[in-house]
Design brief:
With 150 residues, the protein is mostly helical. The chain folds into two domains: 46 residues, no CATH class; 60 residues. The chain is built from six helices and no strands. The radius of gyration is 39 Å and the shape is flat.
Length: 150
C-alpha cells in the first residue's frame, strides 16, 4: 500500500475527510478489492485499540490540593516571608516618591527657563525661527511622490 493510500485509509477511519473525499474514496474501494481488504484490516485494528485505564491519584493528593485551596481562599501568602513583603512595600513607596520628585523637578526646570528674562528671549528667538521655517517651506514645492504636510 502506498503512503498516499495509508493516509487516505487513516483519514477515512478517523472521519477526517470532506464529503467529496469520502465519496471518491468509497468509489475507489468499490473498484479495488485489495484496498477494501486493507481498509477492513485497519478498521479491525482501529476498533481494537483502547485507552489504558486512568491511573489512580497518589495517596494524600486530594488532601494536599484541599489544603492549598483553603490557604489560597484564606489569603495566606505563605510563599513570601514577612521581610520580603515589607521590602517590596518599601521599594514600591520609594519608586513612587522618586517618580513624583523627578516629575516635579523636570516640570519646575521648564517653568524657570520660560519665566526668566533670558528664557523669554530664547522663546522669542524660537518663535521667529519657527515662523521663518514655515515661511520658507510654504514657497517650496514638495518632492514628487511625497504629499505636502499642509
Amino acid at each position: 500500500m502506498s503512503r498516499r493510500q495509508e493516509i487516505d485509509v487513516a483519514r477515512h477511519l478517523t472521519g477526517e475527510e470532506s464529503p467529496e473525499e469520502r465519496r471518491a474514496f468509497e468509489a475507489r474501494l468499490a473498484a479495488d478489492a485489495g484496498l477494501a481488504r486493507r481498509l477492513e484490516r485497519r478498521r479491525r485494528l482501529w476498533e481494537g485499540l483502547e485507552l489504558p485505564p486512568p491511573a489512580p491519584a497518589p495517596p494524600g493528593f486530594a488532601a494536599r490540593v484541599a489544603a492549598r485551596a483553603r490557604a489560597a481562599v484564606a489569603g495566606d501568602f505563605a510563599p513570601l516571608p514577612g521581610w520580603a513583603r515589607a521590602a517590596a512595600g518599601v521599594a514600591l513607596v520609594a519608586g513612587t516618591l522618586a517618580g513624583v520628585g523627578l516629575g516635579r523637578f523636570a516640570s519646575g526646570a521648564t517653568e524657570v527657563a520660560t519665566t526668566s528674562a533670558a528664557g523669554s528671549a530664547v522663546w522669542e528667538e524660537e518663535e521667529s525661527l519657527a515662523a521663518s521655517y514655515l515661511a520658507a517651506t510654504a514657497t517650496e514645492e514638495p518632492p514628487t511622490g511625497v504629499e505636502s504636510p499642509r
